[in-house]
Amino acid sequence: MAQHSFRSSIGARFGLRDRSGFALALGGLVSLSAFNGCGGGDDDTTSTAAHGGSAGHGGTSGQSGKSGASGKSGRAGSGGSHAGAPDQAGSGGTGEAAGEAGRSSPGAGGSATGGSNATGGSNATGGSDATGGSDATGGSNAASGAAGESGAGGEPGHVIDPTSFDGKHVFRYDTFGDDVFWTQTLRINEAIEAALDPTTALGLGLKVDADALPPGVLETADLSSPATTVALIGLNAVVGVKGTVDTAGHLTSVGITCALCHSSVDDSVMHGIGRRVDGQANHDLDPGAIIALSPGLAGNQAALDVLNSWGPGFYDPRWNEDGINHPVVIPSIYGLKDVPLETYTGDGPISYWNSYVAVTQMHGQGQFFDPRIDVAVIYEPDLVTPKLPSLFEYEVSLAAPAVPASAYDAAAAERGAALFDGAAHCSTCHAGTTRTDAGTTLHAASETGMDPVTAMRSATGRYRTTPLRGLLANGPYFHDGSAKTLAEVVAHYDAALSLGLTTEQQADLTEYLKSL
Asked: Which of 166, 167, 161, 165 is nearest to 86 (CA)?
C-alpha cells in the first residue's frame, strides 16, 4: 500500500511543502479498529494499538582490523491501552531504539542503523535481536560481533477519560494545532489582515457570534475595515475561527475549528450575526473561496480553479487525497444520537469522521490511519485523539431543531405518514427511530439512482441511508445537493424506484417529511 503523507496529499494538490513533525506508519497508531463499535454507546471508543521498539542493527566493520561491535537493542515503547469502556480511549506511547555504531581498527568505523520508532500498547512485543557487525575486510581472521539482546515489551498505557475535555469547547474553539498549517503554510492570516473586511467576510458566509461581542460594539464598528475582522477574531466572535492578535493589532496566527462548517447563527442581529446554532450546517459558507484567498496558493492556478468551483455550502473532503474534484453538501450534525454511521458513505462512526476531518482537512496535529482509503498520517504529539470522546458526547447531544406546526399541513402529513410506511416503501430503508438502516446495510448507488462518484471515492463504495431529522432546515438534499426541495426528493424516488405515486400522494409525502 502506498504511504500518503502531508506532502503527497496536500502538497500534490496545493504545491506546498510539508511541515516538520509529520511521519508515516502503516501499523498501529490510529488504526481503523480504533473506531469500531458502531453502537451509540461505544461509538467513540478509541484506542491505539502498539508494539515495542525494534532492535538496532550493529554497524558494519571498517576496511581492516577488528569487527564492528554488536548493536544494542531498542528500548520498548510506553504502552497504550486497547479500547476501554464505552466512550473511552487508550493512548499509545512511543518507543525509541538506537543501534550503536560498530567500530573497527585501524579502518574507519562502520555505519549503524538504529531501530525504528514504535508505538506503545498493551501486550506490546519486544524488539527483535540486533545483528552484530559484519566481518571486517582486509583484517586477518576478523570475527563478526555478537548479536544484541532483544528489547522488552511495552508497558500498559492509560485510559483517556472522556470528561477530561469540554466537548462544547473543543467543538467551538479547538484548532487541534491546525494554526500551524493555516498560518505558516497557507499564510491566510496575512490575507485576512490585509483585505478581509467584515462585509466581505459575511459575503463569504463567515458568521459572527453576537454573544461574544461587547455591548454596542456593532453600532460603531467599521464593517469596511479588515482591522475590524481582526478585532472580531481576537474576541472569539467569528464562528469557527480562532486567532491570536498582538498588542499592535496584527493577526499573528489563525486556525479553524469544527464550528466553521457545522455551526451557524440565528441572524437575530442581522444576516450572519446572531446567537450560535451548533450542529446546523453553514450553507452560506464558501470554504473554497476562503481558502483561495491564501497567499500560500498564489500562482497555483490549478488549485485555485478547483477551490473556486465549489461554491457556498459545498466542500470536497477527499480532493486533497485523491485529486478528484467532486464536492458534497456540508451536512448538519444534529440528531446523531444512536445513528451508527456518519458521512454519506458510512465509512465509520462519528469519531472516525471527526478524526479524518481534524487531521486530513483541518490539518490538525493528530493521527489518522485507514488502509481502505490509503491514508496514514502520524503526528506527535497527538492533539486530536484524546479529545474525540468529549467531542463525540457534545455532538450527539445536539438535537434536531423543532418544527413549528405552521411549517406543514398536518392533515396532509398524516396521510404522508401512511404512505411512508406503506405504498412509498420509505420505511424499508429509513427504518426504526433513527430512520436509517445504516447499522446493517449500505446501498449501491444504482439502487436509488444516486450519483456514483462520491461512493466510489469512499472506503465503502456505497451509500448510507440518511437519518431523517430536521429536514425542513437541512436543504439542499442528497450528498450532491441535486434536490433543492423535499418535493424534488420525493419526485426523484418516485421515478428512480418506479413507485407510481400520484401528484397528490407526492404532495402528502412531502408534507410528512417537512414534519420530521
From this structure: 161
